[in-house]
Amino acid sequence: MSPTLYSFLHVAAAFLLVGYTFFVFASPKLPENRRKVMIISGLLSLVMLFGGFGLVAKIYDNTWHTFLFIKIACWLGLSAMAGIAYRKPQQVRTMAYLTRLLVLVAVWAVYFKPFLN
After folding, report:
1. Would you say residue 117 lies in a domain?
2. Cα–Cα distance between 7 and 66 in angstroms, integer?
3. Are 12 and 60 in contact (CB under 8 A)?
4. Of the residues 25, 43, 71, 117, which has the fewest C-beta atoms closer than 10 A?
5. d(CA 106, CA 68)
6. Is 70 helix (H, G, I), strand (E, B) or coil?
7. How many domains does the chain have?
8. Burial class for 55, CB neighbours closer than 10 Å (0-12, 13-18, 19+)
9. Residue 91 per-residue DSSP state
10. 23 lies in a domain?
11. 31-59 and 3-26 are packed helices; what angle lies between their axes, rounded to 10 degrees?
């Protein structure tokens, strides 16, 4: 597969995952959406991971740079947000701010590649 396809999968899944996460933030107390949203967000998270690892293999020849660890930490945090919002709906506002921060840090890490040798 080409790096362009991996990039598309990674970015598209990231956009959709953020969208579903903020959907949960808008209505965390609706249990009828929970199962469907958790399944979709889990699948999107896996597609995002698949695309990211594909990019690491194709572009960086499986060399692990610091910015990749930053991105993995952001991915883990973003992947957990929907589930946490369903369990703690009273903290949705704080989680929304944290989600924005995680997305900004991940984008920063991609564009500026801190600590790249």
Report:
1. no
2. 19
3. no
4. 117
5. 9
6. helix
7. 1
8. buried
9. G
10. yes
11. 160
d(CA 8, CA 94): 30
User: What's the pTM value of the predicted model, to 2 decimals?
Assistant: 0.90
Residue-averaged pLDDT of the chain: 92
Distance CA 3, CA 61 (A): 12
Any domain includes 103: yes
Using CA atoms, how far apart are residues 80 and 92, in angstroms rounded to an integer?
13
Whether residue 74 lies inside any domain: the answer is yes
Q: Band of the pLDDT at 1, cuts 50, 70, 90? A: confident
Q: What percent of the chain has pLDDT over 70?
A: 98
Q: Provide the domain limits for residue 59.
A: 3-112
For residue 115, the model assigns a pLDDT of: 77
